[in-house]
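Sharing a chain and its predicted structure for anyone who wants a worked example. Both blocks are below, sequence first, tokens second.
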Amino acid sequence: MSLRSRLSIAVAAGALAVTALAAPAVAGDDPDDPRDDWGQTQDQPQNQGQGQGQGHNARLSRGVVTASSLALRSAPNRGGQIIRWAERGEVVSIFCKTHGQSVQGNRQWYLLTDGTWAWGPARYIRTIGTAPRWC
């Protein structure tokens, strides 16, 4: 094998090693992390809307659906694909908020993390406790 070939291989291997070291870990891939994909510690029960007690992920906010039936979508606009429906009184976990299409004068949408990632208009979700952070 020529010196030029060996040098090319060594450079490529070095670049791959640097990339692997510099890339951040993907959430939920640490086998020593006791939290599941939603940030819940697996031995703690899910909080069912009683504030921010045991089992609630501090990064999430809570909200209650105020519409009789609310379409949760793939994007923060009315044209996004419907992922699922939420019913009045349902308690939802809010990951963050952003501006999207206006719904009755309110441009804020919440990214919800209840089993699927879906967007819901803030106009029809009343927050409980702390306000959601910005995305």
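Comments welcome. The longest strand covers residues 91-103.
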